[in-house]
């Protein structure tokens, strides 16, 4: 039953234009649009928190990550630009950067009681939010991104599970190799094949 | 907006770009990728595609209901001071500075003023300034090679990633220019020489020390950089 519901929700969600939702929040501070974003994305952000390997941290991390990420979505909505990235991608990158910062904060607290935040230190946004061109004005980039979204299902389970480990569990290639018990070379070639199947334009 | 940039020739391999987009790359290496992206439109496109892939995988997660409600989130937002609510401005209104500007992360880290950093001179050839990136596995520095001078021949005891930020240098029959991303692996011996016309500024991160080949230099500086990481 739950699965059917999820599937029905998924199909329904395809008709929601998330770009417009974020733009409405940015422009009008519209709470019902923001609630729609919250209803769809907050449970995904929470699930994303539980993918970190240290589950002792996961409970604390999960609630903080949901709150921090959604607050940022609200505050940054005015900076969202659909010519640069799609709303779903934009929210994923906010959750990713926030998770990096929270994990680093927990690591610092673990090492010392010094919780002071040093303003000169770099946050994940400093390193991970780089200047981006209006790539989505180009038809070829739109097609490349649509293709990635649509053809993820064609990956073999071997390939998909490595991509999930990399993108959700925050495992580097080296760490993914260790957890799958595979040589680094095998992980690299599986990732490369997966990216080729998704027609990610790579020249390596 | 990026039209006047020279096209970079040496890019990070896709492994680095993937780990960067996934957020798992240690901050020092991520800073190197991010600095390359500042100069390289092609790699920025790849990152955006990989971010899209990340969002696709993220969207497949089995959702978990948050414990706190939407209303409690809004209460928290409403309690924030007005100044926090309005401080954001559209990223597109931020003018991209001309191409010999430092990448923004490095501007923040250095306070935008390279002269105010603490530089250690190694002879007359080059100087370096260590950066604090909270990455216990690596030492990251800005490296300035004087015009026409070289970093004396040295051997790598680990891996080094270098991004050229300004100027250019030659090494091992290649010429590296602004934006290029270069990886040297354990055991390599080399001797980078800055071009004659200007100093060459690089960002460099090492996971193990380098060892000078020339004994005179070794006595002067037993291990250049990374001395604390020998264990």
Protein model, in words:
The complex is a heterodimer of chains A (204) and B (231). Chain A has 204 residues and is mostly helical. Helix content of chain A is 69%, strand content 0%. Chain A is built from 10 helices and no strands. In chain A, helix 3 (31-49) packs across helix 5 and helix 8 (157-168) packs across helix 10. The longest helix of chain A is centred in the middle third of the chain and has 25 residues, at 87-111. Chain B has helices at 14-22, 27-39, 41-59, 70-78, 82-86, 104-110, 215-220, and strands at residues 120-122, 126-131, 139-145, 154-156, 160-166, 169-171, 174-176, 181-184, 189-190, 193-194, 200-206, 210-212. Chain B has a 6-stranded antiparallel β-sheet, with helices on one face. Chain B is elongated. The model of chain B is unreliable at 90-99 and 226-231 (pLDDT under 50). The chains are: A mainly alpha (204), B alpha+beta (231). The interface between A and B is large, with 78 and 68 residues.
Write the layout of secondary structure elements.
The complex is a heterodimer of chains A (204) and B (231).
Chain A: H1 2-13, H2 18-28, H3 31-49, H4 55-76, H5 87-111, H6 124-128, H7 139-151, H8 157-168, H9 173-180, H10 184-197
Helix pairs in contact in A: 2-3, 3-4, 3-5, 4-5, 8-10, 9-10
Chain B: H1 14-22, H2 27-39, H3 41-59, H4 70-78, H5 82-86, H6 104-110, E1 120-122, E2 126-131, E3 139-145, E4 154-156, E5 160-166, E6 169-171, E7 174-176, E8 181-184, E9 189-190, E10 193-194, E11 200-206, E12 210-212, H7 215-220
Antiparallel strand pairs in B: 1-2, 2-3, 3-11, 4-9, 4-12, 5-8, 5-11, 6-7, 6-10
Helix pairs in contact in B: 1-3, 2-3
Our count of helices of chain B gives 7
Instruction: Report the largest inter-chain contact.
Output: A-B, 78 and 68 residues
Q: Which structural class matches the secondary elements of chain B?
A: alpha+beta
Count of beta strands of chain A: 0
Structural class of chain A: mainly alpha
Q: Provide the gyration radius of chain A in Å.
A: 18 Å
**Secondary structure tally: strands of chain B:** 12
In what order do the strands lie side by side in the largest sheet of chain B?
1-2-3-11-5-8
**Multimeric status of the protein:** heterodimer
Strand content of chain B: 15-25%
For the residues shown, what is the average pLDDT of chain B? 84
The percentage helix of chain A is: 55-70%
- Helical content of chain B, roughly? 25-40%
Q: With helices defined by DSSP (H or I, 4 residues minimum), what is the helix count of chain A? A: 10
């Amino acid at each position: 039953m739950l699965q059917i519901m999820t599937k029905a929700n998924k199909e329904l969600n395809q008709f929601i234009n998330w770009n417009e939702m974020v733009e409405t929040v940015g422009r009008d501070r519209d709470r019902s649009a923001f609630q729609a974003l919250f209803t769809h994305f907050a449970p995904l952000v929470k699930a994303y928190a539980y993918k970190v390997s240290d589950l002792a941290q996961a409970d604390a991390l999960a609630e903080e990550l949901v709150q921090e990420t959604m607050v940022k979505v609200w505050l940054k909505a005015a900076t969202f630009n659909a010519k640069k990235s799609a709303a779903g991608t934009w929210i994923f990158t906010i959750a990713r950067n926030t998770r990096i910062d929270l994990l680093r904060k927990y690591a610092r607290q673990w090492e010392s009681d010094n919780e002071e935040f040093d303003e000169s230190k770099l946050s994940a946004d400093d390193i991970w939010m780089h200047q981006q061109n209006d790539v989505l004005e180009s038809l070829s980039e739109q097609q490349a991104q649509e293709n990635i979204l649509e053809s993820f299902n064609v990956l073999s389970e071997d390939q998909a599970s490595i991509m999930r480990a990399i993108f959700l569990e925050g495992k580097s290639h080296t760490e993914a190799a260790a957890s799958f018990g595979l040589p680094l070379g095998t992980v690299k070639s599986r990732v490369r094949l997966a990216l080729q199947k998704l027609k990610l334009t790579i020249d390596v | 907006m990026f039209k006047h940039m020279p096209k970079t020739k040496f890019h990070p391999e896709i492994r680095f770009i993937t780990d960067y987009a996934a957020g798992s790359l240690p901050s020092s290496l991520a800073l190197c990728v991010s600095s390359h992206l500042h100069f390289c439109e092609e790699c920025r496109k790849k990152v955006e595609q990989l971010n899209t892939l990340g969002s696709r995988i993220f969207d497949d997660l089995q959702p978990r209901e948050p414990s706190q409600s939407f209303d409690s989130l809004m209460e928290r937002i409403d309690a924030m001071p007005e100044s926090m609510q309005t401080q954001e401005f559209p990223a597109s209104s931020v003018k991209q500075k001309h191409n010999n500007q430092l990448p923004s992360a490095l501007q923040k880290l250095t306070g935008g003023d390279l002269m105010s950093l603490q530089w250690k001179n190694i002879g007359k050839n080059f100087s370096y300034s260590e950066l604090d990136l909270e990455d216990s596995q690596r030492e990251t520095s800005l490296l300035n090679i004087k015009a026409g001078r070289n970093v004396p021949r040295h051997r790598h005891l680990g891996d080094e990633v270098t991004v050229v930020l300004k100027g250019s240098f030659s090494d091992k029959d290649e010429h590296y220019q602004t934006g290029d991303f270069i990886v040297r692996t354990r055991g390599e011996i080399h001797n980078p020489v800055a071009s004659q016309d200007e100093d060459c500024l690089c960002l460099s991160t090492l996971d193990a020390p380098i060892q000078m080949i020339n004994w005179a230099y070794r006595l002067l500086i037993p291990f250049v950089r990374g001395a604390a990481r020998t264990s």
